[in-house]
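Appendix B. Extra example for self-study. Work through it before the problem class; the solution is given directly after the inputs so you can check yourself.
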Amino acid sequence: MKAMSGAQIFVDCLKREKVDTLFGFPGGAVLNLYDALLQSDIRHYMVRHEQGGVHAADGYARATGKVGVCLVTSGPGATNTVTGLATAYMDSIPVVVFSGQVPTLLIGNDAFQEADMTGISRPITKHNYLVKSHKDLARIIHEAFHIARTGRPGPVLVDIPKDITAEVGPYEPVRKVELQGYHPSTTGHPGQIERAVNLLLKARRPVLYTGGGIILSNASRELRRLAERLRSPVTMTLMGLGGFPGDHPLCLGMLGMHGTYRANMAISHADVVLAVGARFDDRVTGRIDDFAREATIIHVDVDPTSISKNVAVDIPIVGDARTVLGQMLELLKRPKYARTKPADRTEWLGRIEDWKREARLAYPAEGTLKPQFVVEKIYEVTRGKALITTEVGQNQMWAVQYYSFKRPRTLFTSGGLGTMGYGLPAALGVQVAHPGKLVIDIAGDGSIQMNIQELATASQYNLPVKVAILNNGYLGMVRQWQELFYEKRYASVDMSFQPDFVKLAEAYGAAGFRTDKPEEVVPILKEAFATPKPVLMDFRISREENVYPMVPAGARLTEMILL
Amino acid sequence: MRHTISVQVRNEFGVLSRVSGLFSARGFNIESLTVAETLDPEVSRMTIVTSGNEQIVEQILKQLRKLIDVIKVNDLTGKDFVERELALIKVSADEKTRAEVLRTVDIFRGKVVDVTAKTYTVEVTGTEDKIRAIVRLLKPMGIREIVRTGRVAVPRGD
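Solution. Structure tokens for the complete assembly:
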């Protein structure tokens, strides 16, 4: 047994967890940890604000499927991670945040830079720890990683007092994590699976409703096979985009508030709905009593609390999405089912075609620069091969409506919490994960100003992310609601004063472009994507463009405001 | 409907705030909550009395099971279980009421655990109904203070 300092143990545990990348921001309480990191080959990206650090770790985790790691100091450093933690928690992203804490003897004394981080982060983490002694440190670090990545993934915070990082004591590497009360189910109940498969085969009007769980459990291949075997159309939530190819003939597109007309009509008329890794969020269901009211609902989720939380489920199946879909496919290969064809879907698929023709995604061409046009051009120029992050608001909805995601882990967006300021720091994490790929943050002029400081991080570490600002000089989504539901009484949404984004880009060592002319969009995109450094593009779009179609909050999904 | 839930938890610091925070964050109702160590010093047992419709209680049970520090959750409602609550009641006892207080305590098989010139402090154990009944009878004599443990419960048999 070797004697090691807490800081050395910290580094050793990170190595054992195969962590090679950290995002963070130093400070007094974590000086020992940073000092020990100097002796390791772990890459550290110093962000400009701790919120950016957690979002970057979150983007890295979404891009790689690994646990994203963020290191911050005590007090304000730690409290700045709150929005990042809540973002990761709502979207079930595996992130571990290490925060420094004041020395053990000072805890509770209102010491300098002290905050009760386990108290503050309790409702926005999957679990959290305050390390109370040197001998617990290694066990807790490994438990944190285990909890973050297993079951329904999520963020874990580990608060480490400074004295423990300095203390030298015996260290025996931890071989195995055992948590008495934590055994997430992965395999679904075979009887329930057989009932589900029978229902799906017999259904006349089935819909697969799929969410972020497909991406998190790497189940897209299984999903595609199942959809094709069952000849069942598939709709995705915002978090599920990319989990099923956007250009597949069975793809209905996104459902919900700004989903496609055909997706919302299909789920409202379905007779069997298979929900996988989705949680019946209010932005998806509209008026809850009317959601899929004609359907028998099968719900596959790794988290039992998601099942029958918002909607009564007929066949609950607790398990990992990939494992359960795999079990369904296996069952369908057995002699009993191998030759069973699904019920005739011709009429159902025909109705869906009709809905598609009735209301396609469209926007008025008026000669001015339209945000939808910009996103379409981004899709065309990149041939859909870029990695897209978004901010939150109209930009987020236009990005997902007009860019078609064909593969998982190509869209990075704050779905559950709806965090403005997520896109740029998340793009840094994605770029670190995929150095050779084109990473684009589709932003709004409001959101981008919430974490604009991370442009400095991008320039310092040569992370050539591209930011396309859909600039309407408004907090556009709030303005849209004020226009539609508050008789155009615009309250505190006018952002017509803003920095000169081109000069700002240059000030940060990035390149800047600006236009309000449709014909200049493609040349700017091409030049931006060929520029080997960060780029900020200021697209001056028509100011009062709205996101359509739209289901007003609390209305039925069939009550869409079309264009 | 009322439910009595028995929860075994890891005796970690902060576990009480995780459980109570879960109830407050999701708008669940706690009528009483007791907690103390079991034979294994690393495990504590909580007894939670809560109420809600079937769907809410199902969520409460699932959410409790989801907490990392929770080892086992057992909804005792509808099962055969023993429940007790303890109350300490400080009641005025002057010359006129003294005998009546003692008689009442005796009927309820309670004990007087502290005496002053003007008060008796009475210990009484039983189901909630029993506690409520003695409180009702002692009230006219003047209850100065009352403290109750909340319900503890354990399943009957093996």
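Self-check: Chain A has a mean pLDDT of 97. If your reasoning did not lead you there, revisit section 3.
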